[in-house]
Amino acid sequence: MTTPAKVVSINISTGKGTIKKPIPVGNLIENHGLEGDAHAGPWHRQLCLLAIESVRKMDETGIKGLCAGKFAENITTEGIELYSLAVGTQLKIGDTLHEVTQIGKECHSGCEVQKLVGKCIVPKEGIFTKVLKGGQIQAGDEITVL
Length: 146
What we know:
This protein is mainly beta. It contains three helices and eleven strands. Strands 2-1-6-5-9-8-7-11 form an eight-stranded mixed sheet. A three-stranded antiparallel sheet has the order 4-3-10, with no helix packed on it.
């Protein structure tokens, strides 16, 4: 039996290009993103998702101190290969609904993640979504590909 995909951590920051800190519950706002997060707003990259499996790949390279939010992702997931999803795919996370809008991104200079970690996995394995239906999410919530 396969373990369902789930949320490992909800992460937030008030500044762009900075490492995010875990929070117990995230309030997702339709067509906006995570309430209080620097990247929220009416655009196509409202949330960044990264799998804990991707973080572990970086850990295996010898980089120490990696944890949820260290790559500036809003939602750390487990049990789903995010970067293999197609743009336009819809995800149900808890009671919220999301649409994948972008796979990966170009890393910009001056990023705190790059400075502290030395290398970032988001450009290849992170995904971005917009919030179609808001609500609250927390660690342990199930993720379903629709």
